[in-house]
């Protein structure tokens, strides 16, 4: 997937998809069918050696079986494959949607979106179920036709054998008997493969997307080794009449005849409104896209001529929303060294280089305060660090390799004013002699740029230095005035002169999320370790699991009826095996007759095989049809239930190291799939095989009790015990292996979700190597246990032929002594033969049994797992007048106010009621949160904005209310400018919109909620100055409505200058508080922060 350019990933070519899908189906299905053909060919070859005519008859029937199987599975009809592929595509969309839900647990809980998102998720599942149920008659035909033709083939073969003997074409009955037994072996091979044909069909459909991706040639391939590599890069860039539009909106040009010269070794700043094309320039320089027209040159040469990986290694990017990877702090910073001269340095030298970069980025001090320093694991996407800390680590990662070109896309937007001042000075220092392109809304960060480019609608309004642009009194001057703060000018002694001095002063302010996590929630996690750890949960066995899967869905009574019907039909189908034994024995006895009597009796028993085939058609058609209905129902139910049970958990569940988004998404997909496979066709066939073993064993004892008891008691118990041992061993191993493979799944998920960061760092090869290493480790770890598990399987195969040999010897002995007739011997012996075959088939499902048992146990554990902060723990209602005041002791964190966590010490009060005693669902219903990195979900803008209302009303929000909220957030203008307006798709995680646009959609979502408590966590950090001013006015107006309480966390002090109270934190405590004017008068910490952001117009 990493070989796909950004454009190729989003651009859909329908015709190529359909062609690639169908060819992929053919490829995988023909591979899967090869086992069928091979076994059939071996047995047919044996038959051909003894009787040409009869073998050819059965060869024709075998080919007819194959063609019927192909037709039933859709091989002869592309529309059937497209139907199954459509189901799998819908299921894949459901998986992607589930992953977006699981990666945004804070937003889900803050807005109470569990029921709303579950309904949207269920729409995908309902569509998948509907498409899957359409295959029910196909699977019915697949089962019924296969078994019917096998029995009909037996009848035809017997009839042909009798005819050939009576006409003299075959002299000895023994030749016919050899052919008959060869046909039986071939038929048994076909029937044993039958259960797996369903898997082959599904695999064929699933493989279409994979083959299409593998066969697609990426236009922008980072693994392509071709292209030039300059020995010395000067670093100047030229945009020449560049025009560009995103593939998803080809009619809306983001850049139009854009021309700009970016000199080497200088700092060029890009400013302008959100959507003006600033970030697009970064994407074009990184070659995520190619322009529609015009050229982009590096050192005078078009960027297309350079080796892509080499080009990206000369460039380093710090994004507006930094992405870190699961691992240690040192590992994340070291990602910036991949592909450089310093990648293979000694660990000591590399660590020194990493620490130097961290010091420059003002990150060294807070890193050393972490529990394990640079070796501290920071969680998925760096989730255990605050936004500012993540951004500083990202800055260190970008400068550690000393790149020639530095791209800063709002690189300091998440930093507080004090840290921003020092980090900006550090960035100014590392930018010297290096081409730097800065995108900024905080104009204080680019005032020293060599050239400031003001953009609007993909064009340049004006450009020049800070002073020159102020003198011209144009668009830039207006932006500057909007951000000015009225402060007294501080003396030089009040401003930190170096990063070291600033580090010393700011040391206590670096209260990080990881330390909070360690001290505040670790004790709670330790108390719940036994409850929250699946390894400590008492697992259910196979029979208990199947019973509970059935009992746990009382609302699906019709499903149970279908399942019971499948079980009953399976028991009836089992009668075909003892019936075969009796008919074959009678047929062998026919050879003792001669002339017309032989033909009459032979024709009668051949006809009985046709009758048995017709009965099997009805039985197995019901099995195929009903089993698929049961499977689709179970699949729908448990996919929905798993995601719902995950969403109901509190954040402590998601903080656990084993519960990364990738791991949870993988379980949400694979575990219901395992239940789906067991409770559908497999459980029906297991019942058929079990009934077959019992009925054939009983028949063997009834017709020849001495022979039957010897064979059954000598052979079946060892086979059953070995099979049971294999199941137990696989069950013990399966959970361990799934844990090992979940690590590789997390790496893949993390890389795909952060594809832009992966590509900008040019670490595709490194990610692939890590992924391969995890796979190799998992495979190596599981190889030895697999060898041990195969011992019981090998033993069952050996026992089967051993007790058949024993039975044949003992039966012949009984016949020779006159204790047993030949007919009864054949009935008893063939019954045991079929019993052994059914036992082998039964334990062939051991892998499915163990996977489904472990998966179902996880589903049961998750169902019983209750969050620490429950939605219904208390029922203190919260009325309109309850949000009059809030009293917080010791802790004032957004997470505490949203009740993501409860404090270990101190308390939070709403009026006189302690927050921990309130019903979380009712409380959050009157709270709205706007985060620094807002989350949007797949769907339209209308759907995302309407999520701010109570869940039950989200689908009925009038467009007029949505429009009013969007206008208040200054989002309506850009929404209305889109071709689809409110129906514009946001894409997964809002990827079809810029960061500023995403935040402007998150704001009306919160305002539409009409909250009593409004929490603003850097709510305007991604907005340009003009938009910020308008949105801030709207937020101020919203904050002043009634008794609404607004708590704002802000680094842009201009956004909180009019607050009723400003609290300055230092070391986790309030150092000073007051209004803007009062704090300026005190002349302590707050004035220094204001001075750092004053532009001095």
UniProtKB/TrEMBL annotation:
Mode of membrane association: Multi-pass membrane protein
SUPFAM superfamilies: ABC transporter transmembrane region, P-loop containing nucleoside triphosphate hydrolases
GO biological process, one term: oligopeptide export from mitochondrion
Record bears the keyword ATP-binding: yes
Compartments it resides in: Membrane
4Fe-4S found in the keyword field: no
GO cellular component term, pick one: mitochondrial inner membrane
Transmembrane segments: 37-61, 138-162, 177-198, 558-577, 604-631, 683-703, 709-727, 786-811, 823-845
One term of GO molecular function: ATP hydrolysis activity
A Pfam family hit: ABC_membrane
PROSITE patterns assigned to the protein according to its UniProt record, in alphabetical order: ABC_TM1F (PS50929), ABC_TRANSPORTER_1 (PS00211), ABC_TRANSPORTER_2 (PS50893)
Start and end residues of each ABC transporter domain: 237-482, 827-1092
SMART domains in UniProt: AAA
Keyword annotations from UniProtKB, A to Z: ATP-binding, Membrane, Nucleotide-binding, Transmembrane, Transmembrane helix
Domain ABC transmembrane type-1 residues, every copy: 89-202, 573-851
Principal subcellular localization: membrane
The organism's place on the tree of life at top rank: Eukaryota
Family, per entry: Belongs to the ABC transporter superfamily. ABCB family. Multidrug resistance exporter (TC 3.A.1.201) subfamily.
UniProt protein name: ABC multidrug transporter MDR2
Organism the protein comes from: Penicillium fimorum
């Amino acid at each position: 997937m990493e070989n796909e350019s950004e454009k190729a990933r989003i651009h859909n070519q329908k015709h190529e998809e359909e062609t690639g899908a169908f060819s992929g189906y053919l490829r995988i299905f023909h591979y899967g069918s090869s086992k069928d053909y091979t076994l059939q060919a071996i047995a047919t070859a044996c038959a051909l050696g003894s009787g040409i005519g009869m073998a050819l008859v059965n060869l024709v029937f075998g080919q007819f079986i194959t063609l019927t199987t192909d037709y039933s599975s859709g091989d002869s009809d592309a529309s059937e494959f497209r139907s199954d592929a459509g189901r799998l595509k819908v299921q894949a969309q459901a998986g992607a949607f589930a992953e977006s839900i699981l990666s945004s647990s804070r937003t889900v809980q803050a807005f109470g979106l569990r029921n709303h998102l579950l309904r949207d998720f269920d729409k995908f599942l309902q569509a998948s179920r509907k498409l899957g149920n359409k295959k029910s008659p196909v699977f019915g035909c697949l089962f019924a036709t296969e078994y019917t033709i096998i029995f009909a083939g037996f009848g035809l073969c017997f009839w042909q054998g009798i005819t050939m003997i009576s006409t003299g074409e075959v002299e000895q009955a023994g030749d016919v008997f050899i052919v008959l037994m060869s046909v039986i072996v071939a038929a048994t091979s076909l029937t044993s493969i039958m259960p797996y044909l369903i898997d082959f069909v599904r695999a064929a459909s699933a493989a279409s997307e994979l083959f299409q991706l593998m066969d697609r040639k990426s236009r922008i391939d980072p693994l392509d080794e071709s292209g030039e590599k300059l020995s010395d890069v000067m670093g100047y860039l030229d945009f020449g009449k560049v025009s560009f539009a995103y593939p998803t909106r080809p009619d809306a040009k983001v850049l139009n005849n854009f021309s700009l010269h970016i000199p080497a070794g200088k700092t060029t700043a890009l400013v302008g409104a959100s959507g003006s094309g600033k970030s697009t320039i970064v994407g074009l320089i990184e070659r995520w896209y190619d322009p529609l027209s015009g050229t982009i040159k590096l050192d005078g040469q078009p960027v297309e001529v350079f080796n892509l990986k080499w080009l990206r290694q000369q460039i380093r990017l710090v994004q507006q929303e930094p992405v870190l990877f699961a691992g240690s702090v040192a590992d994340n910073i070291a990602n910036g060294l991949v592909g450089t001269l310093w990648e293979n340095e000694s660990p000591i030298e590399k660590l020194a280089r990493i620490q130097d970069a961290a010091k420059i980025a003002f990150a060294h001090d807070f890193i050393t305060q972490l529990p394990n320093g640079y070796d501290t694991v920071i969680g998925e996407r760096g989730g255990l660090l605050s936004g500012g800390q993540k951004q500083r680590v990202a800055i260190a990662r970008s400068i550690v390799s000393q790149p020639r070109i530095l791209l800063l896309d709002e690189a300091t937007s998440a930093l507080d004013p004090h840290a921003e001042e020092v980090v900006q000075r550090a960035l100014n220092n590392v930018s010297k002699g290096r081409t730097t392109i800065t995108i900024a809304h905080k104009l204080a960060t680019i005032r020293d740029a060599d050239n400031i480019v003001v953009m609007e609608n993909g064009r340049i309004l004006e450009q020049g230095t800070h002073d020159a642009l102020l003198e011209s009194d144009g668009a830039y001057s207006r932006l500057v005035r909007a951000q000015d703060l009225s402060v007294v000018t501080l003396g030089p002694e009040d401003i930190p002169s170096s990063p070291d001095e600033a580090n010393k002063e700011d040391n206590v302010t670096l209260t990080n999320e990881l330390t909070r996590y360690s001290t505040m929630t670790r004790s709670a996690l330790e108390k719940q370790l036994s409850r929250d750890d699946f390894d400590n949960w008492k697992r259910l066995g196979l029979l208990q699991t199947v019973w509970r899967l059935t009992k746990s869905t009382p609302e699906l009574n019709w499903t149970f009826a279908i399942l019971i019907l499948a079980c009953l039909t399976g028991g009836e189908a089992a009668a075909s095996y003892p019936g075969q034994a009796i008919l074959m024995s009678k047929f062998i006895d026919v050879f003792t007759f001669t002339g017309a009597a032989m033909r009459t009796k032979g024709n009668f028993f051949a006809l009985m095989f046709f009758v048995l085939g017709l009965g099997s058609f009805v039985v197995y058609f019901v099995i195929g049809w009903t089993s698929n209905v049961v499977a689709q129902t179970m699949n729908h139910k448990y996919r929905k239930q798993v995601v719902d049970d995950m969403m109901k958990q509190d954040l402590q569940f998601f903080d656990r190291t084993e519960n990364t988004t990738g791991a949870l998404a993988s379980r949400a997909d694979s575990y219901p799939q395992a239940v789906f496979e067991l409770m559908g066709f497999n459980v029906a066939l297991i019942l058929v095989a079990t009934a077959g073993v019992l009925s054939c064993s009983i028949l063997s004892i009834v017709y020849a009790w001495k022979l039957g008891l010897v064979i059954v008691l000598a052979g079946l118990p060892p086979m059953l015990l070995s099979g049971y041992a294999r199941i137990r061993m696989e069950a013990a191993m399966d959970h361990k292996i799934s844990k090992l493979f979940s690590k590789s799944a997390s790496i893949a998920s993390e890389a795909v979700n952060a594809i832009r960061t992966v590509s900008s760092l040019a670490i595709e090869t490194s990610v692939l190597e890590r992924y391969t290493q995890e796979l190799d480790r998992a495979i190596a770890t599981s190889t030895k246990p697999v060898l041990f598990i195969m011992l019981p399987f090998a033993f069952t195969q050996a026992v089967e032929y051993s007790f058949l040999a024993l039975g044949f010897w003992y039966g012949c002995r009984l016949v020779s002594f006159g204790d047993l007739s030949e007919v009864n011997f054949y009935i008893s012996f063939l019954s045991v033969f079929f019993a052994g075959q059914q036992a082998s088939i039964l334990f062939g499902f051991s892998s499915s049994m163990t996977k489904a048992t472990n998966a179902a146990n996880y589903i049961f554990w998750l169902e019983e797992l209750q969050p620490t902060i429950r939605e219904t723990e208390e029922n203190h209602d919260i009325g309109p007048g309850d949000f009059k005041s809030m009293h917080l002791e010791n802790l004032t964190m957004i997470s505490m106010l949203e009740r993501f966590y409860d404090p270990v010490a101190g308390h939070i009060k709403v009026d006189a009621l302690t927050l921990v005693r309130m019903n979380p669902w009712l409380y959050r219903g009157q709270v709205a949160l706007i985060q620094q990195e807002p989350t949007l979900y797949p769907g339209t803008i209308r759907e995302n904005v309407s999520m701010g209302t109570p869940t039950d009303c989200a689908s009925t929000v009038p467009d007029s209310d949505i429009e009013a909220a969007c206008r208040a957030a200054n989002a309506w203008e850009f929404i209305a400018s889109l071709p689809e307006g409110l129906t514009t798709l946001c894409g997964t995680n809002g990827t079809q919109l810029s960061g500023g646009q995403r935040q402007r959609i998150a704001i009306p979502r919160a305002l539409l909620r009409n909250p009593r408590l409004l929490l603003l966590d850097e709510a305007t950090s991604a907005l340009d100055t003009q938009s910020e001013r308008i949105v801030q006015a709207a937020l101020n107006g919203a904050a002043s409505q009634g008794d609404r309480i607004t708590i704002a966390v802000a680094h842009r002090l201009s956004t909180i200058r009019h607050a009723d109270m400003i609290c300055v934190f230092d070391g986790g405590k309030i150092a000073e508080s007051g209004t803007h004017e009062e704090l300026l008068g005190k002349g302590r910490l707050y004035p220094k922060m204001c001075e750092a952001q004053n532009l001095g117009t």
